[in-house]
Design brief:
5-stranded mixed beta sheet, alpha/beta
């Protein structure tokens, strides 16, 4: 039988994912490590506003149907799932504001928000599944980094939805205080409309001055 060359082998790291499931959580449960929480954040990339993290412990007997990476869901579907998650799961939310982000950098601020979200759970987790490449330092339990975790773990997917909905709501409220930037339309991301508003009005306290192009304009 002819041998297959490496180029003929499927790339297990680029195959499409079928969607999140509960297998990671169940693997820890089978070892007596329970409950397991998932954590994720929303808002690493915007020029303004906080990065928001959520930690979620799902009830295995009452997992809302349709949980997925928040980016793959419509706003209406996220809102509906957000309500179901809060009604059936143990949830905690934390955020790091623009000052925190500027002082520590976005990666550290994001991980700190994830740590605080996990610490704030009313039911202490035995293990934390963390979206991305890093486990937040200072956890009260063990943690596992799960790359593309919101597409693999239902708990992380639920956390991604909660974090995204909460951040969007926060930016909608921010638009009432700073209407000239249109935060309700772009949530602080660097759209052309947002960048033009910064050019016209200058930055506000919600802007991340360590981010380009804000940092560049501040140095001129």
């Amino acid at each position: 039988m002819p041998k297959r060359s490496p180029s003929d082998m499927p790339d297990l790291f680029t195959l499409p994912l079928a969607g999140p499931d509960f297998s990671l959580e169940e693997s820890f449960r089978a070892k007596g490590c329970w409950p397991v929480a998932g954590t994720d954040e929303a808002g690493r990339g915007p020029l303004a506003g906080p990065v928001v993290a959520a930690a979620v412990i799902l009830d295995p007997e009452a997992i809302p149907e349709g949980l997925n990476d928040s980016k793959k869901l419509t706003a209406a579907r996220r809102e509906a799932l957000f309500i179901q998650i809060l009604a059936t799961a143990t949830v905690s939310i934390a955020s790091s504001g623009s000052d925190h982000i500027d002082r520590r950098d976005i990666r550290k601020a994001s991980l700190d928000a994830m740590r605080r979200a996990a610490t704030g759970l009313s039911l202490a987790p035995a293990h934390l599944l963390c979206d991305g490449k890093d486990v937040p330092p200072g956890l009260i339990c063990g943690g596992t980094a799960v790359i593309k975790g919101d597409a693999r773990s239902l708990s992380i997917a639920a956390a991604s939805i909660v974090a995204k909905v909460m951040r969007d709501r926060m930016m909608t409220r921010a638009a009432l205080v700073f209407p000239q930037y249109g935060f309700d339309a772009h949530a602080g991301y660097g759209t052309k409309v947002h960048q033009q508003a910064i050019a016209d009005h200058g930055p506000c306290p919600l802007h991340r001055m360590s981010f380009s192009p804000l940092r560049l304009s501040d140095e001129r």
